[in-house]
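Q: What changes when S-adenosylmethionine is included in the input?
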Amino acid sequence: MNAEEPDFIRTTRASYDAMAPDYADRFPDGLATRPLDRALVTAFAELVRAHGTAPVADLGCGPGHATARLHTLGVPVFGVDVSPRMVALARRTHPDLRFHVGTMTALDLPPETLGGIAALFSVVHVPEEHLPTVFGEFHRVLNPGGHALVAFETGDDDHRHLVEGLGHETALDHYWHGPDTVTAHLTKAGLQVRAQTLLEPDGAGRRQRAYVLARKPGDEAR
Ligand SMILES: C[S@@+](CC[C@H](N)C(=O)[O-])C[C@H]1O[C@@H](n2cnc3c(N)ncnc32)[C@H](O)[C@@H]1O
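A: The predicted holo structure follows.
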């Protein structure tokens, strides 16, 4: 695609393209079986709905589970994913919803057009040194008062490189950012962190999940 695109975008795209045919079977909708995660996404939907009718982007939407849930909750949502095959899977699964290929490091959106951003388990593929770019994009495209919900599996800022995923060859990096690292980068990007929630692992071999809710300031007079 773009000659200047960082390597991690290229390898993430290729890895998810390779896994896409098997992804939906292996990873069914986690929000359907996790009431606490669902509650946080539902609260996010309520916050963005209360603020207006501007569209919401589900960034790194994968097969579109959260996109569909937000739609059901009355949010005018579309999905964006860096992997064309994941986007094709999302479109097949949810033909009534809109999905686009794109990267959260360089969003193809004008400034101040979104009422909200959901980025669920997608910044795990962004190295820390690129978080300022990603959250700078969040700040640029959000309307004043718009909310961002960022979810990620967390650890002690460590890292895993996956050379095989779902039986396919991959070159996929996972960065287990700490909640304080994500919060610090969101704050530096100009967003106000409203909540940081840590959910304990819900099975053997699983990680803690962090949800950070942030808001773009600037509409206080409204
Ligand atoms: C672990 S999956 C999560 C999918 C979905 N959000 C969910 O929670 O079920 C991560 C998704 O993020 C996408 N992704 C990773 N880096 C991205 C980027 N820079 N921009 C857009 N999508 C990205 C991947 O292609 C993949 O579909």
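Observations recorded in class: The CA atoms of residues 101 and 114 lie 17 Å apart.
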